[in-house]
Amino acid sequence: MRVAELARETGVRPDTVRYYERTGLLAPPPRTASGYRQYPADAAERIRFIQGCQRLGLRLKEIAELLAVRDTGVCPCEPAETLLHRHIAELDAEIRRLSGLRAELVRMVGALPGGECPDIAPGVWCPPEGGDRDG
Length: 135
Prior knowledge:
Blueprint: H1 3-10, H2 14-22, H3 42-55, H4 60-71, H5 77-111
């Protein structure tokens, strides 16, 4: 199938198909006599695999590593498990970071004075609660 057909079947743009080819995620297909790419049927399954990995947050380099293992005929489950455990740890760290950021924002909102906003001095975010309004 040609680029546009493969793109339509997999729900990606033709430029994405060509990009995957340029980066080595998709093998360069044979070309017709007129120069059109002629992708094999299994290219669609490969693109779906790539897209699924991207939805999980894997980077293209990591996807390429999994595909390289898979292309040898060896089950990629062990490298995938290691990779996914690493991503789980990264997500856990990011969740902790975001939770800390959220807590800090909640503290900042709680420290804002209620009612009318007092006059502020240049360079000061907000005077402390009960602070002098006249500077």
